[in-house]
Write a structure and sequence with these properties.
The protein is α+β, with helices and mostly antiparallel strands. It is built from 16 helices and 22 strands. It is 30% helix and 18% strand. The strands form five sheets. A six-stranded mixed beta sheet has the order 4-3-2-5-6-7, sandwiched between helices. A five-stranded antiparallel beta sheet has the order 18-17-19-1-22, covered by helices on one side. The chain has a five-stranded antiparallel beta sheet with strand order 8-16-10-14-13. Strand 2, helix 10 and strand 3 form a beta-alpha-beta unit. 49% of the residues are buried.
């Protein structure tokens, strides 16, 4: 995916948005420009607590920690302050941003999945039920962290935070004069006290649109806790009870008329919106502290996604002919572990999925490098023959376990027996935004079958078999690297490249059928250590030209612009930019299929998510987990990372296999609010 950036904003919505009428802290955006969303509350609390944990770790290690911790923290500030050694690396906030986004998107989905659940929103005085939702969820988060399943932990945590935050908007906790969170909501062993009984009247009619004094004085004087009733279908509620309020709440049209929600500034009790939002932030910080105490500092930071590196994920064919491939996977993984242990580039987790036929797995997912070493060291090559293997089943298992935006490396020399899983695997690649690179050995240059000296047919990948892997690599933004077993060690440098800090893709294209092309890409002063990868057959040639007109041809292994190494169908160029910014050109001559991918290191990057508008009482936009319909509109939420000054002027969707380009209109979202 290309980085296209050149309006001071951190978040952009592509395609003009129409705000919904909602009756909750709005999940992602607001239309009035003054209200606070679940997204803002969640991110603010995460940044505060993460910074506090990093401060405490620094103090225990005798290091300075100079960051001021308040509600104005940015992701970049916290990432930088928490990075104990960034002198030799470029700082990336992508993984931190992505983890936070997972939590606020799961927070937002509560307003879709649990729209009519009183417990999930503390409506209808369901305080015990709401507390059960919170405490059960927190227990699940702690269990997920213990199992090192941080993806599930983040998703559950976001949903728990939604319910906790709604308490301060939907109850009269703020109206009772409380200026601290109700910590009994996160402690299952404490009794919820002073709850208004079902027969206790709590509200009177509002004075027109003025609902400032609609809670009965006796309720306030006795400190009774109540919340508004809410129903979009029926006006029925117990006699004298408060309603939530808002145009979609039918109970608010029945005496006592009006509501008490503080979801936004324009709500029935919107004059207390800021107080409710601030308490919701403090309560979320308390909940995060409860989790931190239970799981420990380092696992807590992993749950928050505070990492400079991606996972190291291998999917390995273990049949008899793969002994060389297994040995190389061991060598490169051990080298990575030993060289990066204790550094910011140490992989955040390790994933291993072996496969053959008929077996797949077991899956190893761990943050312990020694456990990974022991598991991969156990692998041996056995069995196989001329039988296709369950490669896509192994890849599917890895994709379901790996965090978003992972890079997965598949080692095999055999066709996929389970090619029917191609569409399923493609969907997983798209939803997880993971890159898949195939290390293929033994690809035949024609449709001939390979025979040994005794005439026995041996395992080999035909061109049609290899095309399946090429298609999946293309769909993911990865590569299909085809080498001999003897050259495999030269190709695995790609794995080490991927684990460098802050790697971004600057340009990528797949051309099939082959044709001559002149590609251009931009080098800016924010990008360092460019590397180009070209795959294609031996007839392919290319020329790299800098912004000042200096050129180097593909037959120059060491020239003025790059050093070039070749392994199988892969040419790898370590580009020397020498601070030459501007438009560079990459010209390719080939009538056979090929691919070009150019990466670099930069703190500036972006993350994107496809979102969809949903109507109803509790939502505006939520994460869309399926593909947009062909021919229709799609809405992307694009978040820039790593800079407060980089501006977005264009966002386009490009088809990497053809000239198709779809342009979108941009709407800026400042400070987590939708700007009209």
């Amino acid at each position: 995916m290309c980085r296209i950036y050149t309006v001071q904003l951190f978040v952009a919505m592509v395609v003009l948005l129409r705000p919904s009428v909602v009756n909750s802290f709005q999940p992602l955006f607001v239309s009035d420009g003054n209200s606070t969303t679940h997204r803002h509350i969640t991110q603010t609390a995460i940044l505060r607590k993460t910074a506090e944990v990093c401060r405490d770790i620094a103090a225990s290690e005798g290091r300075e920690f100079s960051l001021t911790i308040d509600d104005t923290l940015s992701v970049s500030q916290v990432q930088k302050a928490c990075s104990s050694d960034i002198s030799t690396s470029i700082l990336s906030t992508v993984y931190f941003h992505t983890s936070i986004a997972t939590m606020y998107f799961s927070n937002a989905i509560v307003d879709v999945v649990y729209l009519l659940s009183e417990e999930h929103h503390f409506d209808d005085e369901t305080f015990k039920g709401g507390r059960d939702v919170i405490t059960t969820g927190v227990s699940a988060v702690k269990a997920s962290v213990k199992d090192e399943n941080y993806i599930a932990g983040r998703w559950t945590l976001g949903q728990v935070c939604h319910t906790l935050q709604d308490f301060y908007s939907h109850s009269n906790w703020v109206e009772l004069g409380n200026n601290a969170p109700y910590n009994s909501l996160i402690k299952p062993d404490q009794t919820l006290t002073n709850l208004a009984g079902v027969d206790v009247q709590t509200c009177r009619n509002c004075n027109g649109n003025n609902c400032k004094n609609n809670i009965l004085p006796d309720v306030l004087q006795q400190g009774l806790l109540t919340s508004g009733y809410f129903n979009i279908f029926s006006s029925k509620k117990p006699t004298g009870k408060c309603s939530h309020g808002g145009s979609l709440d039918r109970t608010s049209k029945r005496d006592p008329v009006g509501g008490i929600n503080k979801d936004k500034v324009g709500s029935s009790h919107g004059f207390l919106h800021k107080d409710a939002a601030n308490l919701a932030v403090d309560a979320t910080v308390e909940l995060l502290e409860d989790i931190r105490i239970a799981v420990g500092d380092v696992p807590f930071l992993r749950l928050m996604g505070l990492s400079q590196s991606s996972v190291l994920c291998f999917v390995i064919d273990t049949t008899g002919s793969m002994s060389d491939g297994i040995a190389e996977a061991k060598r490169v993984s051990f080298e990575i572990i030993d060289s990066k242990r204790g550094t910011p580039q140490e992989p955040s987790a390790y994933i291993l999925v072996p496969f053959n036929d008929p077996g797949v797995g077991p899956l190893t997912l761990t943050t312990n490098a020694d456990i990974f070493k022991e598991r991969i060291n156990r692998l041996t090559a056995s069995g196989g023959g001329d039988i296709p293997e369950l490669c896509l089943s192994g890849l599917q298992l890895a994709l379901t376990a790996a965090p978003s935006s992972s890079e997965i490396f598949v080692f095999t020399d055999a066709p996929a027996k389970d090619a029917h899983l191609k569409s399923t695997v493609t969907a997983l690649i798209e939803s997880s935004k993971s890159e898949v690179t195939f290390m293929l050995t033994g690809v035949l240059s024609s449709r001939r079958r390979r025979r040994s000296s005794q005439g026995v047919i041996t395992r080999a990948l035909g061109q049609s078999d290899a095309q399946l892997y090429r298609d999946l690599a293309q769909a993911s933004g990865g590569q299909s690297i085809e080498v001999t077993k003897a050259d495999l060690s030269m190709a695995t440098s790609v794995i080490e490249d991927s684990l460098a800090s802050a790697v971004v893709t600057i340009f990528q294209a797949v051309v099939n059928p082959g044709r001559n092309n002149n590609f251009t890409f931009t080098v800016d002063d924010l990008t360092q250590n460019l590397t180009a990868y070209v795959t294609g057959d031996s007839s392919l040639s290319f020329k790299l030209t800098s912004s000042t007109g200096v050129s180097q041809a593909s037959n120059e292994t060491s020239g003025p612009l790059a050093s070039i190494t070749t392994a199988g169908n892969l040419r790898r160029l370590r580009i020397r930019t020498d601070n030459e910014t501007g438009i560079w050109q990459f010209s390719v001559t080939s009538d056979s299929p090929y691919s070009v991918k150019i990466t670099g290191q930069s703190s500036v990057d972006f993350i994107y998510n496809i979102v969809e508008e949903h109507g109803g009482a509790h939502g505006d936009f939520s994460l869309k987990e399926s593909r947009p319909l062909s021919g229709g509109n799609a809405t992307l939420m694009v978040t820039m990372t790593g800079s407060n000054t980089v501006t977005v002027t264009d966002v386009s969707l490009l088809d990497d296999s053809g000239p198709t380009q779809v342009n979108g209109s941009i709407q800026a979202c400042y400070n987590f609010k939708l700007c009209n």
